[in-house]
Amino acid sequence: MTDPMPSAKAVPPVLFPGGASAPAAAVIIPVLNEAASIGLVLGEIPRGSVRHVLVVDNGSSDGTPEVARAHGATVLHEPRRGYGAACWRGIEALPAETKYVVFLDGDRSDYPDELPKLLQPLVDGEADFVIGSRARGAEAGALLPQQRFGNWLACRLLKRITGETYTDLGPFRALTRKALERMAMRDRGFGWTVEMQLKAPRLGLRTRELPVRYRKRIGKSKISGTISGSARASWTILHTLWTYRRFDPRDEHPAPAAQARGAAVP
Ligand SMILES: Nc1nc2c(ncn2[C@@H]2O[C@H](COP(=O)(O)OP(=O)(O)OP(=O)(O)O)[C@@H](O)[C@H]2O)c(=O)[nH]1
Ligand SMILES: [Mg+2]
Fold this sequence. Notes:
By secondary structure, the chain is an alpha/beta fold. It has helices at residues 35-44, 64-70, 83-92, 115-123, 145-162, 177-183, 192-202, 227-243, and strands at 25-31, 52-57, 74-77, 100-103, 129-133, 173-176, 207-211.
């Protein structure tokens, strides 16, 4: 069985600008060809809100890593394609001091200036897991109809399976490192967000949804903007729900067949 939370790797991440006196938080940003947006995303992370920003690249061909590095991020490379694979690589490289972990997309759909709002309940010890919900804060056209439907369906199924009420599977989210360790994340594709939301109530985590704004992405859509991408993401989400429907932290982890499937993105 894989180590659920490998220890920090030998290469220490660089301190993000203004991070010296920030809470012990690290941001993980999975990216694939986001050169047009990643600099803006990094520039909009409020200075002093986090210590480290780890941008995890899957072999971008447009110079994304160079732009990220120039904007103060630590850049990591992950050879296995997939959103979850990139997130996992970031987890593997978390500095030992990290207590809070934030996930954020690199396409500038989210508003990084809302990061302190998501972190606050963790820092105050009032929540273990904070999800940015776009249900009410998305500008027109930012969430495509198929995304809205997919989120609605997944949230209904989550309610049925776990009893927990969610309004979104938003990628902008924050959790304590302890909560993340207990989740022992397995999905390496787009089942990542739903796996977290299914496991959280079963683990007895204190989850809070906070409204966040959401805008149209910069650059080329890789998932929800294409029919094949949407179909693959939907399949992965449903498969992940099915795989973990009986998840019980007291049992051994089920081995999901979909772990690597659905991870590949064109
Ligand atoms: N490292 C890595 N990052 C990825 C991969 N696929 C997507 N991403 C990144 O994950 C984030 C979310 O992907 P998006 O393409 O924005 O997915 P989405 O928001 O569902 O849909 P669109 O914005 O319409 O494409 C972005 O920062 C992408 O660059 C991948 O295979 N590897
Ligand atoms: Mg996006």
